[in-house]
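All the exercises in this workshop are built on plain-text protein records. A record pairs a protein's sequence with a compact description of its fold. The structure tokens are whole numbers drawn from a learned vocabulary of backbone shapes. Once this layout is familiar, the rest of the handout is easier to follow. An example says more than a description, so a record of this kind follows.
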Amino acid sequence: MKEFSDKEYTPMHFDTHKSVKSLLHHGFKAPQAESIVELLSQSRDYDLSRVATKEQVTKLESSTKEQFTQLESFTKEGFIKVNHRIDILDTKVEAIKEHIKEQMVTKTTFTEAIYSESLCQTIFFILIRPFLAASMG
């Protein structure tokens, strides 16, 4: 089957006169033939008005591919940033855990241990809470 370029292809004209003559020849009365041809012509015009050209489809396809590429790039960059922030948080949490362990081992009284844990919580809120707020916002 031969493919037509946009320049070669022009929609075929619906010859209403020829169609009416054909219906008359096959036994339809003039008002019937004219009504049928008018309805066919209107439905054909409506159908063609909803058809996209090859150029429009190509532009849409190109635009969609470009948007998808941008979205994919944005998503990858976002994941890289989030993973980096998670790594930073993991490092800080591990440092705080180690600090708590050291303090628990070196403190001899319950009061000193409680104080040490409170100190670590304070450090957590000073160091990590602003970081979390920034990453959530």
